[in-house]
Amino acid sequence: MDLLIYPKNSTIVYLTAGSALFTTGSLGLVFFGDLGLFKQAALMAGFLFFGLCTYFWGKKALNSRPSMVIGDTGIVDHASSIAVGPIPWRDVVALQVLLVEGQRFLGIDVCDPQRYAQRAGGALARLAVQSNLKKTAYVVLVPQISLAMPLEEVIGHIETQLGRTAARDAFTCQKGIAQSILELVL
Rounded to an integer, what distance in angstroms lies between the CA atom of residue 86 and that of residue 103? Predict the structure, then answer.
């Protein structure tokens, strides 16, 4: 049976409202503030950035699908804006909780990370995934802020499922998935 992990709705609402407030404030100061050209340009950049954040969080607030699905065949990540699609169990190499710029993420290491990086939708998303890969060595980064369940509990569910899958199937991976599964299970 699939485990469905939904976002924490109150967090999504706060992030949407905060982003909208900063978007409005940035735009208001551009037009009504008596500022120099450099400050106006910085405020326009803020308007664009927070506008994108408002769009992303607003879209997530209106979406009823789970942020993550842990099932018999693998993991499906919908938690981030640069999700790489379904990850079959045979491709999962390692899991780690990471702290990146003050935010907690679940890093999922996969066989052939470049193949997963190319699966990200759109050129900008692929660029972001490549940046994540260089910065953290993980293609898949699931933000804690997008999940109502603590990351350690998510890892526990994944490890349990990996153990069940490892008992059923024998996998091969260029990184040594069998060894990684044994390390996770033991």
Answer: 24
pLDDT above 90 covers a percentage of the chain that reads 23
Q: Which long-range contacts (CB under 8 A, 24 or more apart) does 25-30 make?
A: 26/50
Q: Report pTM.
A: 0.68
Cβ atoms 166, 185 nearer than 8 A: yes
Query: Whose CA is closest to 97, among 139, 154, 135?
Result: 154
C-alpha closest to that of 40 among 28, 50, 52, 57: 28
Cα 164 to Cα 159: distance, rounded to the nearest angstrom: 9
Report the distance separating Cα 157 and Cα 13, nearest Å: 27
d(CA 32, CA 178): 62
Sign of CA dihedral 86, 90, 91, 95: positive
CA dihedral 130, 132, 133, 137 (to 10 degrees): 180
Measured CA distances, 113 to 17, 49, 134, 176 (Å): 35, 28, 11, 14
